Amino acid sequence: MGDDPVPSLKGVAGENRTPAIQTVQRAAMILSAFTVSRPHLTLNQLTASLGTSKATAHRYTKALRESNLLRYDEREALYSLGPQILTLSAAARVGMPVIGIAGPYMQRLVREIDETVVLSVWDGDTAVVVRVDDNTDRTIRVSVRMGSRLSRTESAQGRVFCAFLPSEDIPGLEPQLAASPELRQELVKIREDNISANTPSVNGVRSIASPVFRGPVLLAAMAIVGTTSSVPAGTHSPLAEALRQTAAEVTAELGREQNSPGH
Fold first, then answer.
1. Which residues have C-beta within 8 Å of that of residue 206, sequence separation ≥ 6?
2. Are 156 and 189 contacting, i.e. CB atoms less than 8 angstroms apart?
3. Best CA proximity match to 26, nearest among 53, 3, 2
4. pTM (predicted TM-score)
5. DSSP string, 26-59
6. Among 84, 134, 187, 209, which residue's CB has the most CB atoms within a 10 Å radius?
7. pLDDT-based confidence at 8, cuts 50/70/90?
8. Contact 57/50 with Cβ under 8 angstroms?
């Protein structure tokens, strides 16, 4: 291949090759640059997201195209996600049925409240966004990128997991609870109300989140995300009640799916 090889996506790190871990990380960064609102990207945009030279970004896009993870429209000079992503997406949905089951309920909630609704799951370390249903009618729209990793204790969804998962399953939580009576009290309140509310002080965004269970097991956190002017503060607003009800309906649906024949 010469002195400037195309990175292998099989994770083999050989002479003159990018180390396997860095290769996977960079490929993931390219793929995660695509969103529902940005389904087509130029090489310059991908280069910026990767933070490398254009030549390096081109090598990665070529490898991803060969793996059918990217498509390239030569006429428009635009990249988009490739057909293999659909196969991976289908496999992920089978592995996490909560995504497909929650979808219609989330879409209905968006129509009812005119705000963005987000679903997150726990990846062993923090909450990760796996579905986003955007509100597209407002002049100012708050969106969340798929795959975003949320703060365990600062985000509303992260706090849902802190409240309902065993504390030993959450890295670093027990020392934080020992040092912060306020956090301990907040997690107790979340367990009582089935709602977590969070208002970051820096960006004017407010989110509220509610747990989704399958039997006794917490599977996901569903959240409403909007501005501080459109999403009321506290856990007892009409929006909070609509979210709590919707999450409860998804929990009930997951319970029926769990108890259906063949499960």
1. 197, 198, 199, 225, 226, 227, 228, 231, 233
2. no
3. 53
4. 0.67
5. HHHHHHHT--SS---B-HHHHHHHHTS-HHHHHH
6. 209
7. very low
8. yes
Residue 144: per-residue pLDDT: 83
- Are 161 and 128 in contact, with CB atoms under 8 Å apart? no
Radius of gyration, alpha carbons of the chain? 21
100: its two tokens: 């497909």
Q: Give the side-chain half-sphere CA count within 13 A for 149.
A: 5
Cα–Cα distance measured from residue 113 to residue 44, given in angstroms and rounded to the nearest whole number: 37
Q: Average pLDDT for residues 136-152, to the nearest whole number?
A: 77
Q: How many CB atoms lie within 10 A of CB 71?
A: 16
Query: In this predicted structure, what is the pLDDT of residue 255?
Result: 86
H-state helical runs in the chain: 20-32, 43-50, 54-66, 83-95, 97-113, 156-164, 173-179, 181-193, 238-259
How many residues in total does the chain contain?
263
Distance CA 148, CA 35 (A): 11
- The number of beta carbons lying within 10 Å of the beta carbon of residue 24 is 15
